[in-house]
Amino acid sequence: MTMPATQSIRPTWLARGGIIPLIALALLAVVASLYNLERALPLAQWWQAMFGGDPDDIRQLVFRYSLIPRFAMAVIAGASLGGCGALMQLTLRNPLAEPTTLGVPAGAQLALVACGLWFPALPAASREIAALIGASAATLVVLALSWDRVLSPARLISGGLLISLYCGSFSAIALLLNQEALQGIYIWGAGSLVQNDWNKVLLLLPWVVGLGLVAVTIIPRSLTVLTLGDEGARGLGLSVRNVRLAALAVTVVATALVTSVVGVIAFVGLAAPALARLSGRHGIRDQILWSAAAGAAMLLATDQLLQLLLPPGAGLPTGIATAVIGAPILLVLIRRMKTSEAPRLTEAAVRRLRHPRVALFLLVLSVAVLTLLAVECGHGPQGWSFSAASVFPQLDALRMPRTMAALAAGALLAVAGIIMKRLTANPLASPEILGVSSGSSLGIISLLFLVPAPDIGTQLGAGAIGALAILVPIAFFGHRQSFSPESMILIGITVGTLFSAIAALLMISGDPRMSALLAWLSGSTYGMTQARASFLIASCLALLATLPPLARWLTVLPLGTGMSRAVGLHLSLSRFILILLAALMTSTATLAVGPLTFVGLLAPHMATRAGFQQPLLQSYAAAAIGALVMVAADWLGRNVIFPYEIPAGLFAAIVGGPYLLKLMAARAR
């Protein structure tokens, strides 16, 4: 969804004196830094420690080679991410854009995973280079998918989402099969500013200064012309593609460098530009400069507060802490933002089925046939076999629950994807943008730390509480915005990222209980019981049965806010009920296959391309397609590399990713 990056804020005392939060944040960062440095070494010894000092004094060595470089890295990384966030939002005209939008962290992580598996003896510097190459390669693929559309903002954001999902799937499989060898990837992904010398600071500093000068001296003038729109800019002789390419190149190179050195640090690229706009800085150059200042202050304050509040030696990554602190800031800003009228859902013309009900019946029949094959055919104790249950009855007891759980999860995620797609008027909306799957995951993960061996009922309750913890802030913060699509996306991403950060903290804790959850977090049906599968099937049927009364809403809402009001639709009520239904479907599916919801992005596209246009039939067709995809993915994942397994959610992402990439490439022509 494309919106102006200079989204306005309702006039309040905070907006009128909006510079106050920035000043307060900067003062907090400076005061906390001075206190921490004074606590580590008396002020009288600072100069001596920095320039010479006693080589036998451990406190001076720590001050010189750890604390001061960490201070400098926080300023450099924060300024880079904040400035890049503003430049990205201005270029793509979307306040959701941030330095991670184009798949930079996902590409860097995949490259690090490959190095860890194939070249484990590489020195640390080489791995940082590999991360930079991986980040750049992912971005180049995104640019290639958008090249023929003049690097349109919508195409870039969509391509970045797909590449992030695809790279993340391959990384997750490698991490699942090589947990001990790749444990360091989790720590890198959490983001850490800990330094042992000045090497990384000196590596980043000239690049950041050089790219920053380009960003504030050359690019702003062209971006100002670009605010007239693509056609207006072309009329003035501006090359729209070249301007966007130059701006994105600066952003990607700077972000890739920072990410390769300190890992993934969330929210700075989103929150810093929002703070800059809140302070009244709406010019392009001013937004970039003030966003860089806000990013530096935010990251420095977060890191220094960590050192102040945590005991010595505590290893809470700064990236996770930034997400925890940044989420409330963004939620407050979202409540103050004015929302634009929801756009209409526009999609490429596709053929319309002459007999959609017959096609739907054939899809349902295909689901039944594939389910039977998945249960009866596969690797058994004596190799490949069909109807092995006649000889080994216990196979049905193992295969049937997993197959039924995959079926239910695929159907629920597909319909949730249809609802989000039509509700947000965004063809690439998917269930995870609500953040409900992250909440359910955190609820179940937290349960394992509280209860040694929880039963199925307790797990379902924990997952439901986690999902509710997401829905409460969505309802609270979204009510003021009439549950508008853009505010829902922002709130969902914000709260979901916060919960994901907390879950990541538990994952890197080293607790052996987390290893048992890794497969489930990757989208596996392993360990599914008959009772749990029966509950999921019953829930799936009950939730799908609620669709007919809501068919009118699904038809009218994509036509836009004005048309919806004209036909007497209660926008707040209809949007909230649809969001609640999508959240229930997503959280239920999460209990089956974990938080990986790629099928919720894939199945709606396949249903639309197949020719199902009427919303109700399209929803049920997507449910059948989602069930087909997940049952097939679960069956193949269990058999392709037998006796090892690939989780169904990951396998669906790997197989379905090329289809969506091909679809994007076809639309680009």
UniProtKB/TrEMBL annotation:
Entry membrane topology: Multi-pass membrane protein
Family matches, as PANTHER family: FE(3+) DICITRATE TRANSPORT SYSTEM PERMEASE PROTEIN FECD-RELATED, FERRIC ENTEROBACTIN TRANSPORT SYSTEM PERMEASE PROTEIN
Entry GO MF terms: transmembrane transporter activity
Cellular component annotations (GO), alphabetically ordered: plasma membrane
Transmembrane segments: 13-35, 67-90, 102-122, 129-147, 153-177, 201-223, 243-276, 288-310, 316-334, 355-375, 403-420, 432-450, 456-477, 489-508, 536-556, 576-603, 641-661
Protein name: Fe(3+)-hydroxamate ABC transporter permease FhuB
Similarity comment text for this entry: Belongs to the binding-protein-dependent transport system permease family. FecCD subfamily.
This protein's UniProt keywords: Cell membrane, Membrane, Transmembrane, Transmembrane helix, Transport
This protein's record includes keyword Plastid: no
Predominant place of localization: membrane
Gene3D superfamilies named among the record's database cross-references: ABC transporter involved in vitamin B12 uptake, BtuC
Species whose genome carries this gene: Rhizobium lusitanum
GO biological process, one term: siderophore-iron import into cell
Location of the protein in the cell: Cell membrane
SUPFAM superfamilies listed in its UniProt record: ABC transporter involved in vitamin B12 uptake, BtuC
InterPro entries in the cross-refs: ABC_BtuC-like, ABC_transptr_permease_BtuC
Source organism, top-level taxon: Bacteria
